[in-house]
Amino acid sequence: MYWSDIAEVLKALGGLVAVLGVPLAFWTYRRSVRTKRAEWLASLHEKFFETDRYTQIRRVLDYREEPHYAQLAIAVQAGTHHSLADELWRYLNFFEFLAGLHQLRQISETEIVRLFDYDLS
Questions:
Q1: Up-side HSE of residue 114: CA atoms within 13 Å toward CB?
Q2: What percentage of residues in the chain have a pLDDT greater than 90?
Q3: What is the rounded distance in angstroms from the CA atom of residue 9 to the CA atom of residue 121?
Q4: Residue 69 and residue 60 in contact, taking contact as beta carbons nearer than 8 Å
Q5: Is residue 102 domain-resident?
């Protein structure tokens, strides 16, 4: 009788651990996913703002620097090659990439706006 009581207690403890373990495992998983997502969003931010990749085109678009802005407008309207037009297409491709991630539900509209509101405006 003594061993059967111990077995029942261990069975109950096992059930309790399983019942408590599932939510704890889910919570740990969600926390890990949020951490990875934050790291990924930080990487997007870094690639866009902290590298020189889009500096020139952002400067031309933000400040309408002449004669660069006029040259860019002419090249885009005429569909001719210009280094600034190439930069603009790369810049726009970055936002197409974000739109694709949004369609795949990998990034939310709120996250996009928080990171790139000024540039989207």
A1: 10
A2: 42
A3: 64
A4: yes
A5: yes
Does residue 10 lie within any of the structural domains?
A: yes
Q: Name the burial class of residue 94, with classes exposed (0-12), middle (13-18) and buried (19+) by CB atoms within 10 angstroms of its CB.
A: middle
Count of domains forming the chain = 2
Q: How many CA atoms lie within 13 A of 80 on its CB side?
A: 7
Mean of the per-residue pLDDT values for the chain?
88
The reported pTM is 0.70
Contacts from 52-55 at CB under 8 Å and sequence distance 24+? 53/90, 54/87, 54/90, 54/91, 54/94
Residues 6+ away with beta carbon under 8 Å from 41: 107, 111, 115
Instruction: Kindly state whether residues 31 and 62 are assigned to the same domain.
Output: no
Chain centre to alpha carbon of residue 15: 39
Lowest mean pLDDT among 6-20, 32-46, 82-96: 6-20
49-62: per-residue pLDDT in tens? 888 889 999 999 99
> Domain containing 3: what range?
1-42
